[in-house]
Amino acid sequence: MVLQQALSDCDRAWRNFFDSLKGRRAGARMGPPRFKKRMGAQAIRLTRNARFRVLENGRLRLPKIGDVEVAWSRQLPVEPTSVTILKTATGKYYASFVVSLNHDEALPPVETEVGIDLGLKDFAVLSNGRVIENPKFFRKLERKLKKAQRVLSRKVKGSANRAKARLAVARVHEKIRHQRDDWINKQVAEVVAENQGVYVEDLSVRGLARGPGAKSIHDAALGLFTTRLGSKAARAGRTFAKVDRFFQSTQLCSVCGVLAGPKGMEGLKVREWECGCGAVHDRDRNAAANILREGQRLVAAGQAETVNASGGQVRPGTPGTARNPRDAGQNEEPTRTRLVPTSR
Ligand SMILES: [Zn+2]
């Protein structure tokens, strides 16, 4: 059964790849399946046919293995259709059940919409003024990870001490994953509950702004945050759109629509600026306001789907926007890039 499952997973991966080649599959072009590096983690999946069973006494009966004691994290609402037994790199075992439910996850509708600027200093700044700060444990765990990795790098290859050190690194990674996921899920739940429409910037622009360097917990968390925001919003019946990378969210004045903010790498250091129209902006909050407006415009124009599906840009130079990259550098004649103000 386990081997059949692995085979069917492989089959699905190839089918997805061929469908993507022929353009029958939404989303970015995908490559052929690769062997996954398990890093010590292993998994098997058992379907109903394999006759696994949750027993009266709370144990889990697995074929060929026996009755296993389980620390239940929640009650199963219905009979599960499959179970995946997972062994993590740190040697812990998890049972993950698939259940099918009919219930609707849609949240009651609300009036407000929000634009989100993903931060460098803060984790995120919302157009309504709320700031999601970077949690302290990001740095703390990063330091811990560095230390564990340093210890590992000094151990002799193949030695028992190296195996121990590797386990220590895996433990830190696990801790990071658990703490980060818990925190992100809470933030996402809150944003989605409070807003009917959620708009974020496309993250690829951040990678450029930041320059080379290893991906920190913070960077990886930003990506996860955006992905989960999208899926949670979809399940909750909310509007979600990404604003593409040519949109000048930081330089545009959210009051008068003129491209007047500080530019380039220097611009990243400026926290506050004043526009010719007299408006004084906090950089991130202004960006969030622009992302909100651009997101609403994209959705109204029916372009949000294209941005989402392909992850690419919508054609630059659309009338009424300042998304043409060439315009970005032309500070001298800001009136040429005036935005048609959208009513809020
Ligand atoms: Zn202005």
Automatic annotation (TrEMBL):
Q: Which UniProt keywords apply?
A: DNA recombination, DNA-binding, Transposition
Q: Which residues form the Cas12f1-like TNB domain?
A: 225-291
User: Where do the record's region annotations for Disordered lie?
Assistant: 306-344
Among the record's GO biological process terms, what is one?
Answer: transposition
Domain Probable transposase IS891/IS1136/IS1341 residue range list: 96-209
* Keyword DNA-binding carried by entry: yes
What GO molecular function annotations does the UniProt record carry, in alphabetical order?
DNA binding
A Pfam family assignment: OrfB_IS605
Q: Please indicate which superkingdom the organism of origin belongs to.
A: Bacteria
Protein family membership: In the C-terminal section; belongs to the transposase 35 family.
Q: Name the chain's protein.
A: Putative transposase
